[in-house]
């Protein structure tokens, strides 16, 4: 049923590359088969509730620019927001959505009242999900906006804040399970420090490790079959955050024995802020066996903070999806648009156009990545570069059958004098450009 917010806009359909209709897909064709699977099933698009329906358009130097009929603190407005959200999901044909608890219900005076409000909205969501067929990719808790979390949630010096955050996550996991969510994300927005002058880093890391262990234990206790995800996040808003990047998160998981229980949700913008490329973080997560899901967006490369813009760089997306496809694709994860309109993009149509452009960009990247995989455009040169490691002697060195003395003796005996070989970087960059 139409809410009237989007006027008479019809559901967005695929019209092909020649279309000039801003409210049509040019590259995203959900039913197109790519590497033996429907494009929709590869990309598993999700709309982020917070940026699309909660963010008022502010920035560090100015307040609200958006005027939405659901902005406010009543349950009636929260349900109106849900009506508009599910209408947009349906117009886009987006199969999934994601939310924080604070996005979907107004905060009350007590924890119990806030929890009751989330339960009421969850029931409302269940009806909407049944009606539209839209599913929940993941749920999460906002453990960073309220002033109680100004010094962190799990890492807070006040144990009562730790307890409040634990109760919040417990309830959000319950709701995620009830709505058949496929993952649960822990986003440590303020799990870090502003200054070491008032920070016991070892203590805070242990608190964070204990918190995550509690979450994992509870997941198994209630039979939640979804994946627990951590989202790496560097700096911003704190000087240093404990989940800085994929490598840092993996080291943390290993320390607390959770590397087989928790995976990562990697955001493009966060990868850039950490000084990495998106494909680097994806490749590393796959190499370490902790890849789970992605938040798709981009940063303004002239700004030093997380601008959360919609993706429009096809070569970047092609390299990202290459890393995803080359390692088997998504399992429980997907492509969540953790992206928001620019504060001057005021119209309802802008919400649709932004997502359409992002979905088309991802589709083009996916198709380019799939062609590179089919043609072995990158994998064949890569295999050739490391071919020497397939020899029996090389495998013996790796497997522990040779000591350091054995290896040194063979170098002398056989007169080994290695000659450098070209890495052919420019050639490979040109190969990628042929596909995008």
From TrEMBL:
Ligand binding (Mg(2+) 1): 231, 267, 295, 338
Residues engaged in binding Mg(2+) 2: 267, 270, 306, 308
Transmembrane residue ranges: none
GO cellular component: cytoplasm
Taxonomy, superkingdom: Bacteria
InterPro entries: Xyl_isomerase-like_sf, Xylose_isom_bac, Xylose_isomerase
Active site, renumbered: 100, 103
A molecular function (GO) term: magnesium ion binding
UniProt-annotated location(s): Cytoplasm
EC numbers for this chain: 5.3.1.5
Co-factor note (free text): Binds 2 magnesium ions per subunit.
Catalytic reaction(s) noted: alpha-D-xylose = alpha-D-xylulofuranose
One GO process term, biological-process aspect: D-xylose metabolic process
Keyword annotations of the record: Carbohydrate metabolism, Cytoplasm, Isomerase, Magnesium, Metal-binding, Xylose metabolism
Record's keyword annotation contains Magnesium: yes
Main EC class the enzyme belongs to: isomerase
Listed Gene3D superfamilies: Divalent-metal-dependent TIM barrel enzymes (3.20.20.150)
Cofactor(s) the protein needs: Mg(2+)
Sequence similarity: Belongs to the xylose isomerase family.
Assembly behavior: Homotetramer.
Designated name of the protein: Xylose isomerase
């Amino acid at each position: 049923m139409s809410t009237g917010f989007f006027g008479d806009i019809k559901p967005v359909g695929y019209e092909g590359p020649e279309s000039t209709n801003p409210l049509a897909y040019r590259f995203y064709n959900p039913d197109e088969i790519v590497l033996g699977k429907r494009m929709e099933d590869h990309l598993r698009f999700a709309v982020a509730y917070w940026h699309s329906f909660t963010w008022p358009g502010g920035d560090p130097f100015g307040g609200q620019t958006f005027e939405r009929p659901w902005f406010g603190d009543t349950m009636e407005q929260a349900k109106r927001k849900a009506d508009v959200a599910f209408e947009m999901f349906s117009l886009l044909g987006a199969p999934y959505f994601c939310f924080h608890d604070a996005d979907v219900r107004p905060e009350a005076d007590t924890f119990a009242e806030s929890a009751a409000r989330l339960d009421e909205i969850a029931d409302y969501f269940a009806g909407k999900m049944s009606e539209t067929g839209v599913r929940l990719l993941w749920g999460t808790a906002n453990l960073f906006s309220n002033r109680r979390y100004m010094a962190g949630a799990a890492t807070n010096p006040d144990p009562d804040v730790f307890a409040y955050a634990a109760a919040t996550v417990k309830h959000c996991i319950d709701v995620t399970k009830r709505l058949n969510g496929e993952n649960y994300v822990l986003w440590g927005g303020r799990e870090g420090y502003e200054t070491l002058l008032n920070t016991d880093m070892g203590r805070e890391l242990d608190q964070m490790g204990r918190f995550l262990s509690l979450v994992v234990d509870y997941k198994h206790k209630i039979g939640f079959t979804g994946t627990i995800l951590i989202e790496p996040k560097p700096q911003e808003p704190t000087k240093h955050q404990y989940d800085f990047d994929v490598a840092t998160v993996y080291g943390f998981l290993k320390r607390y024995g959770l590397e087989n229980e928790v995976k990562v949700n990697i955001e493009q913008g966060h990868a850039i802020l950490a000084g990495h490329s998106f494909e680097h973080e994806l490749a590393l997560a796959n190499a370490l066996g902790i890849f789970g899901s992605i938040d798709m967006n981009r940063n303004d490369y002239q700004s030093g903070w997380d601008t959360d813009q919609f993706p429009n760089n096809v070569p970047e997306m092609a390299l990202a999806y290459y890393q995803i496809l080359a390692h088997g694709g998504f399992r429980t994860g997907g492509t969540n648009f953790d992206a928001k309109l620019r504060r001057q993009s005021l119209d309802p149509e802008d919400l649709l156009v932004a997502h359409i452009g992002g979905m088309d960009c991802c589709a083009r990247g996916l198709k380019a990545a799939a062609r590179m995989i089919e043609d072995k455009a990158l994998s064949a040169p890569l295999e050739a570069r490391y071919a020497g490691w397939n020899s029996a002697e090389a495998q013996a060195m790796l497997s522990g059958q040779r000591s350091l003395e054995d290896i040194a003796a063979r170098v002398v005996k056989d007169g080994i004098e290695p000659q450098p070989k070209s890495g052919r970087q420019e050639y490979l960059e040109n190969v990628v450009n042929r596909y995008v």
